[in-house]
Amino acid sequence: MRTMRSTAAVLLLALSACTRWGSAQSGIFREITIGDGSQELKLGAPIRDDVQPLLVAAGKDTYRVRPGMYGGADSITVSTRPDGTVRCIAFAYGPGESYDFIVAGYEQDLGAPATRFTSPDSLRQITEWHDARTAFVVTREGGRVSSMLCEPDRIEGGQKPAVTVGGANPARG
After folding, report:
1. Measured between alpha carbons, how far is residue 164 from residues 129, 136, 170, 171 in Å?
2. Is the pLDDT of residue 15 over 50?
3. Per-residue pLDDT tens for 70-121?
4. pTM: predicted TM-score of the whole model, two decimal places
5. Within a 13 Å sphere around the CA of 73, how many CA atoms are in the beta-carbon half?
6. 20 to 30 Å CA-CA from 160: which of 4, 18, 66, 168?
7. Dist. CA 56–CA 116, nearest whole Å
8. 43: Cβ contacts below 8 Å, ≥ 6 apart
């Protein structure tokens, strides 16, 4: 238990250290630094030339950040729109990482989440923060924890972000 908390603390510190927070207007971070700390992946922006060597193609409009180019997660996957702009950055964490600890850390930085969802069998939990331009979702499915930072699509006629996680959108019920 102590090792898991220590690992989760290091994870949270590493993510905080490698993440730049958005403007006070948005409140949710929109970019992360990777590599030597000068390379950035930013939502809504094209992948920069200096970042390309740190990525491996993983499918249509999908890239994985090469291992060793980041801290705090087991893997980072980047999804782009057809025009090459970054739409989503997904983080997968190692086995045994504490969902509750990670969520508590982000609550300190981002405030109360917009949505919390727990499946009836308690095997799946989702916590979401969002503003007009950004959504950040932390998910636990079974024993695995992941998170996604997205520039979400808009709901027709409104400004509320629509983020689908694992086939369900808890914000829409």
Report:
1. 13, 11, 8, 9
2. no
3. 988 899 999 999 999 999 999 999 887 899 999 999 999 999 999 999 999 9
4. 0.74
5. 25
6. 18
7. 33
8. 30, 31, 86, 87, 88, 89, 133, 134, 149, 150, 151
